[in-house]
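Incident log, structure service

09:12 report received: a user says their structure output differs between two submissions of the same chain.
09:20 pulled the input from the user's history:
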Amino acid sequence: MSSSEPQDPKGFLSPACELFFLSLTSLYLELLVIRWMSGDIEAFSIFKTFPLVTCYVGLGVGCALGNIQHFRWLPIALVAFTALMKFPDILQWEALQFPTLSGFSDWGSATVAANFVWIQVLFFAPFIVLILFGPFAVMATLGARLGQLFDSISTLRAYSINIAGAIAGSLTFAICSFAGLAPWAMLIPALLMLAPYLMQGDEKAKKACLLLPVAVAIAAFSPPHDFSGATISYPLGKTYAVEPPQSWTFWSPYQRLDVVNQRFIYEEGGKPVIAPLGVNIFSNHRGYQNAMDFSPEKHKEFNVPALHAFLDEFRKRYQFPFQLAKPGDCLVVGAGSGTDVKEALNAGATHIDAVDIDPRIIQIGKEFNPGKPYDDPRVTTICDDARHYFNHCKKQYDMVLFSHLDSISSIGQGGSVRVDNYVYTTESFKQALKLLKPDGVMVISFCTKKDWFKDRIFMTLKEASGYTPLMVNDLRSNWLIPNTFFALGKSVQDKTLDVPNLDTKAFSVVKDYNPQNVHVLTDDWPYLYVTPEAIDFPYMVVVAEIILISLFAGRKVVFGKSTPRDWQLFFMGGAFLLLELQSISRLSLLFGSTWLTSAIVINAVLLMIWCSNLLVMKSSAWLSSRVNLLYIGLFVTLLASWLIPVGQLIEGDSGFLNYALVTFVTSLPMFMAGLIFSTSFSTSESARRSLAFNLLGAVFGALLEYLSTYIGVSALVTVAGMLYLCSWMFYRKSTTTS
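09:34 re-ran on a clean worker, output below:
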């Protein structure tokens, strides 16, 4: 037996059990890579596609090579991965942004900034190669053993075991993620499962296992971060020799959260005095929320005019919605750590339903907000997606407040749709307006750095309501990011809303506002943060770099020996990933854009594949002669998925049958595709090579998913249909050449 052939570790697990546990570990590590990179490196907080693509390329290349010696390199690969993950931390590059003009960013589409982004591209190109090398190496070494095991077990049985292991890995990850484990802690279960396999090798392999605890130690290492933005010094620019602010790091199911003491430092009697204000919350190393109490009596012991002026600036912004109307019975969506909730209480709210999607953010508000808004008996906290709450809420309110609802993470593990995108669509605003009492007011408060951003929200509100919303600009830029308030309600429609006398230096009512050529947000095009740029050339350059690197890494697969059957499975991999990402986006409309929805959909898809594979195992002879009919059935189900009127079926609290119908029609194409894949895979000349082609096809599909920002979410079904058509052509070619 040569070293490249599978080895049967006697006295240990059978190849089938080994395949199950390695499949579990590979998917678990894949999800961990995406979670860790999106949480610790801002560039990947939205663009999760690239870590996903890297994992697929690594697994595909590893499966194709199938060399046991490569698998022995896994401990070294894990050390390299953890060390490279700490590289941005050490150099303070964790806030490095992705070079894009179409994704909402600090440079946006300004001319000077657009020139700067090309400098960013030149810097980012080698950085992305370096940082993605770690997950590629881990997945390639894992894939090496997986490829061997696929060749040592009958094809469909191996695939069934592989999917079962993937389901177990996905569930394990979901549990650890919900528990709030940090990445270094989540690494431990994977290493405990890998160690026994690695110990079955020679002495060098056993010694290499000593590197596994080193990988955990590196992952747990946390260099100091610069949270100087959480400290305000007076006079501005003055530096005081004081201890850095205290900070805590939490991991929610959605993001990394750093909680930092917010302080105001001034000098009294020649010594610095620290006035505690609350906490700043950073999401994925980016400024996110302030948990503060702006009540003057809260800070009366500090007799510093600059401090109270600072607090007054914030207080004006947070109190403004309650100057338009009394909150009464109030709904606050995006309640976060509770600052808006506290101001609503101060304004006389009789009851508040505070909705936020992130359970950890709510907990931070309970523990760290000095105003203790969530302890007030008038407040009911609800952990839910705002859109899902709108669809199912039976109450009506005097005020519905969108409280700076702004997410910095995307749905699922690779899509372009952000968690909050479906909250700002025409359909969502219509649902929210239904929750208003006859004289109620809905207020949307949002930081609007760019005019196109303001235009898009304004025109979407106008489309949803049928009349012109009230728009008020916050003119202050002293301490605050530019902000705009939008208001809707019968009093706005009738122009009877009594706008208070405004501080003209702080606020300005915008009149006769009528932006042109604005892409209104809908459930099919919910991309609030995508700029109006026609083509995002910087993004395309990075994509081209990833494609070239992927082709180089997989050159022995793509340009080596292949059959039409391999290319059939390549296009099936691309199409299937598009369908999976599209289904996560669509079903998020039904069940909320939550981590739980994403986890359920991913596992449901895997379970569907597993069931279709079992069906093929039982009826392979009958199905193998009817693959053409299966393809026709697939195209029919794709057409049904494309034509189904999702918006009409799920409008309001539409009931179980409509939800079941949308879920069934969305999922059926994936079941049909699973039947075709398993039937075709079972007759592959080389299961290892065909699996590698399928994984590399998934890379192609993941990159194509970004097309949805141009053509809409539903149109991904048509793109998948074209890929399945290519797959069918190669299938027909394989039957004529065999």
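09:41 both user submissions now match this output. Likely a transient worker issue. Closing.
09:42 reviewer note: DSSP finds 27 helices and 13 strands in the chain. The chain has four domains: 1-223, 228-307, 309-449+451-510, 561-738.
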